[in-house]
Amino acid sequence: MSPSSPLAACLAIAMVALLACRHEHAAAAAVPTLSTASRWVVDESGSRVKLACVNWPSHLEPMLAEGLSNRPVGAIAASVAAMGFNCVRLTWPTFMVTNASYGDLTVAQSFRRLNLTDALAGVRANNPAVVDLKLIDAFKASPLPLAVVSSLGEHNVMVILDNHLSKPGWCCSNTDGNGFFGDVYFDPDVWVDGLTRMATMFAAVPNVVGMSLRNELRGPRQNANDWYKYMQRGVEAVHAANPRVLVILSGLSFDNDLSFLNTRPVNLSFTGKTAFEVHWYSFSNSQEWSSGNANQACARISSGVASHALYLLDKGWPVILSEFGVDNRGGNANDNRYYGCAAAVAADLDLDWALWALQGSYYLREGVVGLDEVYGVFDWAWRGPRNATALRRVQALQRPLRGPGLAQVAAPYTTLFHPVTGTCVVVRRRSPPAMELLELGPCDETEAWDFSATQQRLAVRGSSGCLRAEGVGRPVSLGVSCGDAMARWSLVSDSKLHVAVNATAAGDGALCLDVGADGRSVVTNPCRCLRDDNSCDPESQWFKLVASTRSVAGKQSLLAQQLPLKLKNWRVRSF
Ligand SMILES: *[C@@H]1O[C@H](CO)[C@@H](O)[C@H](O)[C@H]1NC(C)=O
Ligand SMILES: *[C@@H]1O[C@H](CO)[C@@H](O)[C@H](O)[C@H]1NC(C)=O
Ligand SMILES: *[C@@H]1O[C@H](CO)[C@@H](O)[C@H](O)[C@H]1NC(C)=O
Ligand SMILES: *[C@@H]1O[C@H](CO)[C@@H](O)[C@H](O)[C@H]1NC(C)=O
Ligand SMILES: *[C@@H]1O[C@H](CO)[C@@H](O)[C@H](O)[C@H]1NC(C)=O
């Protein structure tokens, strides 16, 4: 983009005026209109759009998107795009649009009412244009810079408007009055009115591509009959007001449960514009991750998530993992074990998702001013990533692996995905001496592997060699001799995330793929805590064999050509 373009001019002027720029950039915007094709979210041409979103809250008491006291909204939006998220799940409370005692407040009034003096000064410094706007106008302005960003060619940041609760505040508890239809703050008529207003208000904003009806239904009143009664009403209301948006339905029990749909599907007047969402945190299962064996926990819990929600993929519905995430400080054992397992599932099914969360801190949360968000992508001050390592491993899930319109290779191949680092096994060539090393590297540089469960063979497609174990703590190799036990791989442990050979004959027992002491090389080590033991962490040995059709950028053919040549130079081992 050249600095003199009209878009740059739009960016440069006050945010209020961005409203006026909308029509100009709308034509240039490459934001898709979403619909569904069986389990996939697709664009107008039927090609897959993978939602790789981040949650950005605007539903707490101040009712302003968090972070505007720290940085200009356009800078935050640009960071979102630069970090590779193509979408934001932007939350809002019903009362902001249905109740004048909230909706009539300006940003300044809302902050003063809560004594948020410093935060207001920060908003004034970083986003002066929103200070005297009504809250809803500030909210409208918030996604618009995203629309501007999206029109800049490379960055397409879509927005899903998420009705998070009714009464502004932190969410969610069983008893906060916002949990289910009929709760003290959850009048179904007011809710439908709020949804209709939002759908109408944003009908002409191209990058608002989706609306989720209600976050985390819950509490003593929850029941499936009322879910159908009101959710179907909500879907129809949104669709009538804005037939362009994808409408997203959440389940019961804090959006952990959509199992009731197995026997009774939704009954809607239209098709192709609805998806479901599910939330999955470590604490969705209390302390099961840290108190039990991690492989057994992974097998049991992921099969529960499948039977409660992800089974809908097989029934032809998209299911968006619209909240997941971990304490990014790395010290929560429950979270650490959960993450490797959840990321393996997300990669395996190539899920659409929204990470919790963007915000490094809150203006005010649960009575605490400036509360630090340890799950946040940003640091407290919203300047840079809180934990670049944690961000990188989530970024590995951003690009689609398969789906309509995306197939780049004839037949799906396998990637050896290491979920806990967000990397894949790649082949590096070193010379001199000419040799190949297997390392963890960017998944974009993966080899096209083929795994045959019957032959127990793991090989680079098109090559005559195979993956071989070389002993405890030693790097694995690409060998020519593939018939012995050191080259026969199987998926062991309940999680099926251990990729192992039986090296008993060599005196080593079961050896599993692992990360070497350098943090990069791929080695084998004795398989760790396959079952029962809850005191050790197997995650470094977790590899998921994930199907992909994403282009391997010529690597496959290159390797196939080079392999016979290079084999001559190998240190040929005697087997
Ligand atoms: C609007 O919000 C105020 C303050 O919470 C509340 O007292 C009032 O009952 C609400 N009105 C409606 C119509 O929901
Ligand atoms: C704001 O400060 C005033 C004066 O100190 C106090 O009376 C009031 O309760 C405070 N309001 C809130 C929401 O904290
Ligand atoms: C679906 O909804 C329509 C319109 O409300 C109704 O006529 C029909 O009986 C419903 N079908 C089922 C299976 O409930
Ligand atoms: C960053 O995240 C990684 C992955 O969870 C963790 O191992 C590390 O301890 C974290 N580092 C910091 C400084 O928080
Ligand atoms: C591993 O191989 C040995 C023979 O070398 C065999 O006795 C043993 O049953 C095998 N273990 C498994 C788990 O297959």
TrEMBL record:
<protein>
    <recommendedName>
        <fullName>Glycoside hydrolase family 5 domain-containing protein</fullName>
    </recommendedName>
</protein>
<dbReference type="InterPro" id="IPR001547">
    <property type="entry name" value="Glyco_hydro_5"/>
</dbReference>
<dbReference type="InterPro" id="IPR035992">
    <property type="entry name" value="Ricin_B-like_lectins"/>
</dbReference>
<dbReference type="Pfam" id="PF00150">
    <property type="entry name" value="Cellulase"/>
</dbReference>
<comment type="similarity">
    <text>Belongs to the glycosyl hydrolase 5 (cellulase A) family.</text>
</comment>
<keyword id="KW-0732">Signal</keyword>
<dbReference type="InterPro" id="IPR017853">
    <property type="entry name" value="GH"/>
</dbReference>
<dbReference type="GO" id="GO:0004553">
    <property type="term" value="F:hydrolase activity, hydrolyzing O-glycosyl compounds"/>
</dbReference>
<feature type="domain" description="Glycoside hydrolase family 5">
    <location>
        <begin position="74"/>
        <end position="359"/>
    </location>
</feature>
<feature type="signal peptide">
    <location>
        <begin position="1"/>
        <end position="29"/>
    </location>
</feature>
<dbReference type="GO" id="GO:0000272">
    <property type="term" value="P:polysaccharide catabolic process"/>
</dbReference>
<keyword id="KW-0378">Hydrolase</keyword>
<keyword id="KW-0326">Glycosidase</keyword>
